[in-house]
Design brief:
Strand content: 5-15%
Distance between the termini: 42 Å
Number of helices: 5
Oligomer: single chain
Radius of gyration: 16 Å
Structural class: mainly alpha
Largest sheet: 2 strands, antiparallel
Helix content: 55-70%
CATH architecture: Orthogonal Bundle
Length: 104
């Protein structure tokens, strides 16, 4: 019996039975995060799903990376059309830096 971990939906790829986009899991994997760490960021996923997503990516790199590029393009277009207030961006950057310094 084979288990499907990825499903195409809305013109992109998602982990089956979840709202988590494959692109998010793959981006963390590309940054060097371990499957266990990735799983901790998505509590609705199982470790098996994360490994399944990574396996799918490794077997379909060109297709997944093309999907990721398309997602980034759509996200950039949305951000350009709906810019965040400068004060919000500053607060988010401060929070990001604090989080990163705690992780180190």
């Amino acid at each position: 019996m084979t288990k499907e971990f990825i499903e195409p939906r809305d013109g992109s790829y998602y982990l089956a039975g979840s709202r988590v986009a494959l692109a998010h899991v793959v981006a963390e994997f590309q940054r060097g995060e371990s499957p266990e760490t990735i799983r901790s960021h998505y509590p609705t996923l199982t470790l098996e799903q994360v490994y399944g997503a990574i396996t799918f990516y490794l077997g379909n790199k060109a297709e997944v990376e093309s999907d990721m590029a398309g997602r980034r393009c759509r996200e950039d277009e949305f951000s350009d059309a709906h810019p965040a207030p400068a004060q919000l961006k500053d607060r988010l950057e401060i929070a990001r830096r604090q989080t990163l310094s705690r992780q180190s």
